[in-house]
Structure formats: structure tokens, C-alpha cells
Amino acid sequence: MRIGLYPGTFDPLTLGHIDIIRRASGLVDRLVVGVAVNIDKQTLFSIDERAQLMQVQVDKLSRELNVNIIIHKFDNLLIDCAKDIGASVIFRGLRAVSDFEYEFQMVGMNRVLNGSIETVFLMADVNRQAISSKLVKEISRLGGTIDNFVPKEVALLMDKKYKK
User: Would you say residue 112 has pLDDT above 80?
Assistant: First the structure.
């Protein structure tokens, strides 16, 4: 069984993330979406909230595409998470050249740590390339509409968070 890992903080989960999940799920027998704790990032949503929001979307995709997608929360090294779940491939989404520069460094480090796990880059759909979690949070915080960038459940929860 080929297991793939698509990791991220998903704060917030965007339609770009869902696009990558949809496409990656067709390349492996099981896709694990790794929802990461990242102490270097100030997240809007807790790890449990992010995992719950992701679960709603993954359940929809699993039914729609008849694929095996599961959620896994993790707070260790990405390469260790991949090993823990038995993944042979890590999927990473790219929006722009600047994403590649960072990801290229990560792949090099991961290959040194465990050369048996491959990394596959998936380019964001052209209609989703401008979406970034950081910009979505800023638009929402400033009262803008984010309906074109995130699932409706995420938009509703973000609206509640910023109206506190």
C-alpha cells in the first residue's frame, strides 16, 4: 500500500489546500493529511480546530472521490511523522517560485534525514495560486470577504474569531 503525507499547518484551510489534497489522493492508496503544530507560527485556530475543519472537508472528498484520506495531528519532525505513518512520499503544494526556494531546502534536509522518502511537488491550480493562509487571515481580520478562498465552514468560523 502506497501511503502519502500532505503536511501543513492549514491555518486556515484554503481551497488551494483542498485542491492539492484532491490531486494527491489520486496518486496513492492512502493520503494522510498531517495537521502540524508549529511553534514558530502564531495560529488563529488551535490544532484541534484545524483538524476538525480539515476532517469535514476530507470526509466530503473521501465520499466524492471514493479515496482513502485520513487526518493525523503531529508535532515532531516532518520526516519522523512520515516514517511513523509509513509514508513513502510527501506531497507539497507550490504556488510560486518563492515557495520552491523554501521547499527545495526542506527536501534537502529531509533527504539527509531519511533518503527513502520522496517529495513530490504539486503546482497549485492556476485559479488558486494567489491564495495564501496569511492573506486570507488579513482579509478576514480587516472585514473583507473570503468566500472565494476558503470552504464556507472556515469562513464562518473565521468571522466568529475576528468578531470577538
Answer: yes
